[in-house]
Amino acid sequence: MKNRLRVLRAEKEITQAQLADETGVSRQTINAIEKGKFDPSLPLAFKIARLFNMSIEEIFEDED
Amino acid sequence: MKNRLRVLRAEKEITQAQLADETGVSRQTINAIEKGKFDPSLPLAFKIARLFNMSIEEIFEDED
DNA sequence: ACTATTTGTAAATAAAACTTGACATACTTA
DNA sequence: TAAGTATGTCAAGTTTTATTTACAAATAGT
Predict the structure, then answer these.
(1) CA nearest to nucleotide D8 C1': residue
(2) Is residue B52 packed enough to be buried (19+ CB in 10 Å), middle (13-18) or exposed (0-12)?
(3) pTM of the model
(4) Contact call for residues A47 and B42 (beta carbons, < 8 A)
């Protein structure tokens, strides 16, 4: 599962810690997701998408 | 997290077991998701969405 | 009524998300 | 040079929750 989180965050000019704060998870969780270490839960994916005013598919890409 | 799985499946006229089969999970998992007992993993959500030619947001609705 | 098929659910397991804490690196800037 | 901020990572632990197995209930068909 790839994602465009890194660039989106850069565009918005917010830090991992801020994103973590706004989504209610730890900074390391955001980092891990960005680095593709694991996928967010569906609810968290929704929260992130909402924060960027985007659809989940616009942010996350299933590689299959 | 609500979802329209039940009706979509009805429209497609497939059984829980068939949907389970095509998404690679157990029949009970599909049932549980339909009944809202828990949310699918993000990869599974993608698989389901792809199967119905829909976006995740068109199938699942985050209630917050 | 009987059988087959579909659905519901409890209980247990497996898996994975997420946390905490710590430390290291890089970049800035004062 | 020192201090502050942002990111990377890792180990280890917790805890949530997705998923399975097994069994019960319901529904449909003959």
Answers:
(1) A31
(2) middle
(3) 0.94
(4) no
